[in-house]
Amino acid sequence: MDVKLPPLGEGADSGTVVNILVKEGDQIAKGQTIIELETGKAVTPISSSAAGQVGKVIVKEGQKISVGSPILSLTGGAVEAPAAAPKKATAAKAPAKKPVVEQEEEAEESIDEEFEYTGENPPPASPSLRRLAQDLGIDLRKVRGSEGGGRIVLADFKTYIQGLRSLAKRPAAVTPTAGPASGSRPVEQIDFSRFGSIYKRPLTPLRKVIAQRMTENSVTIPHVTQFDNIDLTNLMALRKKYAETYEKHGAKLTVTSFAVKALVNALKKHPAFNSSLDEAAQEIVFKEYFHIGVAVDTEQGLMVPVIRDADKKDLVQISKELVELAAKARDRKISLEEMQGGSITISNQGAFGGAHFTPIVNKPEVAILGMGKGAMKPIVTKENKIEARLVLPVTLSYDHRVIDGGSAARFIVDLVAAFQNFDEAEVKIGG
Fold it and tell me: CA 58, CA 217: separation in Å to the nearest integer?
C-alpha cells in the first residue's frame, strides 16, 4: 500500500519535503515520523498511517507534494492476510470496494483525458439518460461509454459527474512565476551574465512557499490600502514609564505590544475585520475569538506566528508571548498550528526604517496593519499650537470583497484613537 500525504490543516494543501527520515527496507510503525514537510512557513513532521516495511521511498528532498500524493510504499504490513478459503467453497468473493480517494482519482482521470466522442451522430445512450444529461447541462460527447460501440450507461455518467465534483474541489494551482495574465506562456529564461558579473543562490523551500502565497494572495484578493498617522507621543511616555517594570517581569514592552491590544479594541467595534470569506460556501465567517498574527523577519523569510485569545491576556502576557514566538520563528521551531487561525496580522517595519507601505493581506484573513518608523514632526494641536510630536505612519490593507471603503475609514479612525488614548490602567501590572 502507499502512504499518502494527509490533510495539513487550514490553508495548507501542499508542502516541500525537507527531510526524509526512513529508507527502503526499514521496518516502521504506525504513527512513526517518516518525513518533515515545510508548509505554511513551518516544518511539520508527517507520520505513517500504517505499519510495515518500506518498499520504496517515492518522494525526494526538495520535492513539492500535495495532499493525497504518495510518500512511500509499504510491504509486509502488520495486518496479516486472511487464510485462503477451502477449495470446496463455491461462493464467489465480492470484489473489494475501492477507497473513496482512489475512486475520486479514477473519476478525475476520466475528465483529465479530455475525451470527446467524434462520431457524426449523437453518442449512443438511452433516452432517459439523454434527458438527464440535458436537464443537468452535461455534454454526452465528453462522457466515455464503457459498453459495446461506446454506448454510455448510467455508471459512465455517474463516473463523469464524480470527476467534475472532484475537479471542482481541487485547489487552483498558483505558481510564483506565472499570473493570470501570462496564461500558459512559458517563463522566459534570461542570461543575466551577458550584462556583467553575477552570482546565484537557489530559492529555499521557505522562500518558494512565501512566493507562492504572496502571489496567490495578491492575485485573488482585491486590495485597497488606507493610510493614516498616529500621534505616539503619549503612548511612548507610558512605555518609558513602565518599560523597566516589565523587564523585571521578564517582558519587553514594545509598540507591537500596544498594537495588539489596540487592534483587539478596534476589532470588537468592527466585526467585519475579524472575519474570513468562505469562497466555497459564499459566506462571510465572523469570528468570536481574537487571534492576532505578528509578522516576524527571519533569515529564511517572513513568518507569522499568532497570539491566541489576545483579548483575554494582559499586556505583560502579550509582551512575553511576542518575544517567545519571535524566537521560535527565527529558530524554525514554530509549528504550523501556531501560525494558523489569525483574525488580523500586524507587519511592523519600524525597527528597519521607512514610512508608509502597502502590505499584502494574509489570506484567509481580510485585513493587515502595516506600521512604519515613528518620526518627530510638527503637529498643529487642538489649541492651534505647533508642537513637535512623535508620529507613526500606519497603513491598513483590506479585502474589498468583504470590506467597503467607509468601513475601513471608520476602523482606522477608531484604531488611531485606541493608540492615542491608550488607557494607563491596561499598562499597569495588575491594574
Answer: 31
